[in-house]
Design a protein that fits this description.
serine protease; 3 domains; Peptidase_S1_PA; 456 residues; signal; Thrombin, subunit H; DegQ family serine endoprotease
Length: 456
């Protein structure tokens, strides 16, 4: 059964979406009573906040594909691959972030491959949820339920979190029902854990266990600072090290899903590494933290903004950067076209550079969702060798569906069924509008123009 709460294995086991005002995570603590006869308690805050945290039950089918060795295909007429299906059930948690719209945020791995998603409220009501969109790299998914009298949780500004701030985790561990644990922020900007494509986690010692996935991490005002997503533990249980996706990162991704139905990931266009003491000394930077630029991709957002190899990025939008991975996660969660202020150190001098992020295109997972024939490829907005706009096909996996229909690396899709394709959005729209059993892709390959036929 698909694990509902991810573990780091063995030793490291939209526009106008109203998600709540961004507030300080270190504001005054409202739950302490001024009466000498009352004991200080978190109960008033929990009573206000907990109705916005839900339990999620899923049922689905896990599909496994395995390539058949060529000798068996040749001599026994076996298919190219064997497909097996296995039903699964699981449980997790979620957070209502917009009561009027019925929006519920959870982790992607909680609802991935789910055929049915049931959301259960603290008052006992149950609703079938629709998945509006998800992002596998950041492990965020957005659900929608049709219900009245919902509670929502306000969002805090997670960029204002500090190590040592008190936090409370609310979720549904082990399917026991809603459970509350407390702790502090143990660290910020955690990355390099190899549990996701984009890692910029809040680390906390508030007890988090299986089933807490997608639940809320709130401050003492009852405002959401993070979405609980992973644990560190050799045996799958709590050892005081849990990780949550910052609320600001979640909000940016959710806004994109609401507006576009998908995440349109921003792209800076640099290659680099973490700053260490040696790099800082060589580049005359006062800080040993940040992102060191080794290469700037031609025609990228970074190149257009004037960034250069040798620059050290120390802040993004006024917030200190700890590592290159943190920069990658923050940029990757912002939408294409977002304007970002980067503080850099160049020749020992600090300056601020404004960058308009480019479009990273779509991942193989999203390409597959757009149409199964594109599975095993990445699709990016780009140009052919004549400078005409189109969709560039990259990283086509051997023996993948994309390879089998004839797509190759560096192909540029410029049309579908004799209609012009300028970008990924055009391609998606034409695929959704196609009512026939065949689609003909007009592809530019080098100096030649060919057609690739997809049969439904």
């Amino acid at each position: 059964m698909k694990a509902i709460f991810r573990q780091i294995a063995v030793c490291i086991t939209v526009g106008s979406l109203a998600l709540g005002a961004a507030t300080s995570a270190s504001a005054s603590i409202p739950f302490f009573s001024s009466s000498k006869d009352e004991v200080p308690s978190l109960a008033p805050m929990i009573e206000r906040t907990s109705p916005a945290v839900v339990s999620i039950a899923v049922e689905g089918t896990q599909v496994t594909r395995r390539q058949v060795p060529e000798m068996f295909r040749e001599f026994f007429g076996a298919p190219d691959e064997q497909v097996s299906e296995r039903p699964f059930r699981g449980m997790g948690s979620g957070v209502i972030i917009n009561a009027a719209e019925g929006y519920v945020v959870t982790n992607n791995h909680v609802v991935d491959n789910a055929d049915e998603i049931i959301v259960k409220l603290t008052d006992g009501r149950e609703f079938t949820a629709k998945k509006l969109g998800a992002d596998k790299q950041s492990d965020i998914a957005l659900l929608k339920i049709e219900a009245d009298d919902l509670s929502e949780v306000a969002l805090a500004n997670s960029d204002q979190l500090r190590v040592g701030d008190f936090v409370v985790a609310i979720g549904n561990p082990f399917g026991l029902g809603q459970t509350v644990t407390s702790g502090i922020v143990s660290a910020l900007g955690r990355s390099g854990l190899n549990i996701g494509g984009l890692e910029d986690f809040i680390q906390t010692d508030a007890a988090i266990n299986r089933g807490n996935s997608g639940g809320a991490l709130v401050n003492l005002n009852g405002e959401l600072v993070g979405i609980n997503t992973a644990i560190f533990g050799p045996n799958g249980g709590n050892v005081g090290i849990g990780f949550a996706i910052p609320s600001n990162m979640m909000k940016s991704l959710v806004n994109q899903i609401v507006e576009f139905g998908e995440v349109r990931r921003g792209l800076l266009g640099i290659l680099g590494r973490d700053v260490d003491a040696g790099i800082a000394e060589a580049m005359r930077s006062k800080s040993n933290k940040g992102a060191f630029i080794e290469e700037v991709v031609a025609e990228s957002a970074a190149a257009k903004a004037g960034l250069s190899a040798g620059d050290i990025i120390t802040e993004i939008n006024g917030n200190t950067l700890s590592s290159f991975d943190e920069l990658r996660a923050k940029v990757g969660s912002m939408g294409a076209g977002a304007e970002v202020d980067l503080t850099i150190v160049r020749d020992g001098e600090e300056q601020v550079v404004e960058v308009t992020l480019g479009d990273a295109g779509i991942t193989p997972e999203v390409a597959k969702e757009m149409h199964p024939a594109f599975e095993g490829s990445e699709l990016n907005n780009g140009q052919d060798n004549a400078g005409n706009a189109g969709v560039v096909v990259t990283n086509v996996e051997v023996r993948s569906p994309a390879a089998r229909i004839g797509l190759k690396d560096d192909d540029v899709i410029i049309g579908l069924n004799r209609q012009r394709v300028n970008n990924v959005a055009d391609l998606r729209r034409l695929i959704e509008a196609n009512e026939g059993n065949v689609m003909a892709l007009n592809v530019k390959r080098g100096s030649s123009t060919i057609y690739v036929v997809i049969r439904q």
